Amino acid sequence: MEKVWIAFAAALAVGLPAIATAWAQSRIGAAGAGTLAEKPELTGAIIILVAIPETMVILGFVVAAMILLM
Amino acid sequence: MIIRMAKVEIVGPKQDLLSTLDILHSRGVFQPDPQLLERIELAPADRLQALVLDEHDLRERSFFQGLFDRVTALLDLLPEAVHGTSALQPLPVMDLLDELVDQHLAKARQQALMLSDCRLEVEELQHNLVFWQALEPLLASLPEDSNLELFGITIRDAQQLQALEELLQERTRGRCHISTTTTSDGALIGLIATDREIAVSLRQALTDERVPELPLPDELAGLPLPQRIAALRQHLQAQAASCRQIEADLLALARRWRPIYLRAQAWLEERLTLYRATATAYTSRLCFIIEGWMAEAEVGALCDDLNQAFAGRVVLEQQAILEEDFDRVPVMLRNPGYFAPFQILSSLLPLPKYSSYDPTPMIGLFFPIFFGMILGDIGYGAILLLIGLFLAKRFPPRRLASDIGKVLGVAAIYTILFGFLYGELFGDLGESWLGLHPFWFDRAKDILPMTVFALTVGAVHILLGISLGALADLRRHQPRQALLKLAMLIAVLLMVLALVSWFYPQSWLNTGPLLVGVGILMPVLIAAEGLLAPLELLKTMGNIISYVRIMAIGFSSVLLAVVANRLGGMTGDVMAGILVAGVLHAFNLLLGVFAPTVHALRLHYVEFFSKFLDLGGRRFEPWHKRPS
Questions:
Q1: Mutation test of the interface with chain B: which of A62, A66, A67, A70, choosing the one with the most B Cβ atoms within 10 A?
Q2: ipTM for this model
Q3: In this complex, is the C-beta atom of B552 within 8 Å of any C-beta atom belonging to chain A?
């Protein structure tokens, strides 16, 4: 039973940040697409901005890995 | 690197101003900055004031501006079939050009107007011809009845045709006939035949219903029906011939005069630019004075040019760049050989200030390493190296594609290097086929060591960033800020060591004293930076933890490669297996180019550069002549 809870905790640790990242990226992506229509020269900066919320899911993944491994 | 700039002051007699500006303009190395002059303090008698052109110069400028406008208007009308410019020196013949341009402009305007009318008529006739040609079979099928009136109409769609049929039935009580056909350009057209007696009321009905009737030129409208099309063709040919004749006349005018007027336009533009440039000069009673910026390496050559041209009357003097000037110094980045292609990555950021650093060498050093750490696969690296070499060889140097190829090539070399360290060739294919073993980590299994490695890289990178920030503050003569950065660096280092001692206890490393050290530094930081100092410390720790993405994205990449191999193996057929694994590896490679690029850049832009880079510099934009 304890293994189930560990797996559940790990799933939550990576799943919730994944949802948060997806939500943030959807907002940034939509705004970025609007920006690019007016200023195509900002392509590089927009790509970087879209990648910024991925920190959440990456840290979530690390926490999940630690839950499973430690 | 940021090119070393010089603040220079150019002084000379007022009458040499335009010639001096001309030399500065042709050399293309000087950027004027009139705001620097506002700080100069002189005796009231010699007070500087913005240059106001005298009456002669104003008249000349107005003449050149008017001539430039007319020449430009004429060149807009002349066909561009003639290229190249004349070698003529426009100044001696400027008065003659002034007279000629009016004549040529009037002639060109008249011909352009005639050509426009003629083309419009040709277009209309072509449209009519298409229409009447399509109606020809319908005309032939009508009975020989001289009492018939014919209307040609265009019909929008089948729905309008139905409504039209109902209308005709109602208005003429069946005393008309409508036939429809489609023209060669796809339009639906119709021919209505009716008695002459009711033609007027029917025409009115068509107008009321907004059904466009095809008009004919007046001279054709009265012709008998069979002759209309032949006459239309003849008229079209005559108009087309007129168009060709006018075009030939304009071309002849352009062949003879366009190169000369192009040369005159370029000369006038240069001259007017010089007049506009006088706005950057200040004058005293007898002298002009210009201040601005240029690359320090160019100062000697410009000095020689001015001495040669004015025999010492115009003097260039390099001045010390004061602390209050730092924000005004324009920035020019130039990087040698290896680092030059990496400017495509640093150009995504705003320019750094003059007192800061060029981010390009940092990106050139660390970006390929981070890319290699994340992707780390011999097979993927080899493919990317081939793509990079192809792009670098296929396209000329300093082009975007060539630079991308070079950056990709360097990143691919590190990918191969880390591929050896991780023992990966297309995931675990190297291990199963060639017995390849990791020299360092097996990324698919050693998650924790890989995490520690990524965090260590992050700590070193961030501490380097803070050190560079302290150095930048020292260069800006801000020792207090530099000391604070140093205190922050020590606090971060102590925190990192405290975490290491917590997770990996060592006899020589004691957590307690390290935390006490942080506790001692904290009041100093708070006193200097306020309550945000602890937050800044936490933010810096967060920056270090962010480097764990090197492990996380690399882990997902290697697992995707392993999955590709397993799925390929599960098909049970060699060809199908190669196909499945190939498609998945191609997908992983595509991700493997984008994800490491974006995340390695993000680590630089967000985590690393925020510690030392001061952005918001002005681009160095010297005066220069338009290439002819």
A1: A62
A2: 0.78
A3: yes
Task: Give dist(CA B221, CA B236) in Å, integer.
Answer: 15
Write the pLDDT tens digit of every residue in B226-256: 677 778 788 888 889 999 999 998 888 888 8
Select from A52, A59, A65 the Cβ nearest to the Cβ of B545. A59
What is the spatial distance between Cα B276 and Cα B34, in angstroms, rounded to a whole number?
A: 13
CB B440 within 8 A of CB B470: no
> Which two three-digit tokens encode residue B615?
């952005």
CA distance A38 to chain B (A): 17
Q: How far is CA B407 from CA B342, B363, B366, B608, in A?
A: 6, 10, 12, 20
CB within 8 Å: A69 and B448: yes
pLDDT tens track for B350-373: 889 888 889 999 999 999 999 999
pLDDT at B151 over 60: yes
Looking at CA atoms only, how far is residue A22 from chain B in angstroms? 16
- Predicted pLDDT of residue B342: 92
CATH number belonging to domain B118-240: 3.30.70.2750
pLDDT at site B408: 94
**A65: closest CA of chain B, how far (Å):** 8
Question: Does the structural domain A2-69 have CATH classification 1.20.20.10?
Answer: yes
Please report, for chain A, the start and end positions of each structural domain, with discontinuous segments joined by +: 2-69
> Which residues of chain A lie closer than 8 angstroms to B451, CB-CB?
62, 65
